[in-house]
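Sample intake sheet
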Amino acid sequence: CGVGLIIALPKQSADKAISLLNNHGEKAWLLGEIKHATSSERVIIK
């Protein structure tokens, strides 16, 4: 179990991509975002 596939795309495309995947039988959801690092920490999990 777990996340089988991650798709990175522009934020403005997320809703359309999620709908498209869900309509084709996939369980799609927004997992997170990619941002420029502003400190020495490179991965932040909230």
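Comment: The chain has a mean pLDDT of 89. Residues 1-46 form one domain.
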